[in-house]
Amino acid sequence: MVRIKSIEEIQNFTCLIRSLRKGLITNFYLNVEKHSIWIEAGEFFVHETPECIFFLHENGNFYHLFFTATSTDSLCAALQKASFCNELLSIDILGAKENVVKDALVNIGFYEYKSLYRMYHIGYPLQYEMEKIADMATIKDIDEIYHILNQDFDPLSEQIPTKGELALAISKKEILIFKAESKIKGLILFELSKLNMYLRFWWVDKMYRNQHIGAFLYHSLMNLAKGTKRQMHWVISTNDNAIKRYKHYGYIAESLYDYVLLNKKV
């Protein structure tokens, strides 16, 4: 593996595979803001083979693995020879419920750790009468938010933001929080564009549930997202409570799946 030094390097590696004109499969989608943070932190790496490029994001005791390859066969062949396969790897495969790439990776030793599917709501979000909305997180909250996300969510399957990513989200006013006793007891982390709202994390402390804190945060977010026409969230397929909650707010399941595969049992 070689540490990536610039966004241009990523673009050049991707162009190399495209230039072969033998086909293209990928689970990597360039996000200049996010990937620049990874590069600056020295935690983003590349492994090059003739027909497959691997990008690896170091995340504590494991790596998130991304690929751009000419075919499923070239992906599997390169992966079986890769020197980094002794590390714990987490790889996301997006697509339909029946997925050829996922099946091929399972055949060479990966296993399905979790599956998620996307839920969405089409149309302007419902607006709520509120005296005030939830507070925006500040940079002083970053360590506490990072701890909460890593403690109450699964880094292997839910792509917990780095502190650099959290700092960016705070600067863009994309984290709402609720505090009690000077501690964060609820939060929503989201991404907002002109037409779309992507709800990434929605959390309430176990000791503060059933006190309408989750609803307060969600209503605050919907009022902020009033101009959007599509609201989305990924949910773990076995998380019945979360699925029920989103259905209550009018979300429906989409036929887009995210299979999280690991190469080692945990």
Automatic annotation (TrEMBL):
Keywords: Transferase. The keyword Transferase applies. InterPro entries: Acyl_CoA_acyltransferase (IPR016181), GNAT_dom (IPR000182). It holds the Pfam family Acetyltransf_1. The keyword Transferase applies. Residues 131-266 form the N-acetyltransferase domain. One of its GO terms (molecular function) is acyltransferase activity, transferring groups other than amino-acyl groups. This is GNAT family N-acetyltransferase. It comes from Bacteroides ovatus.
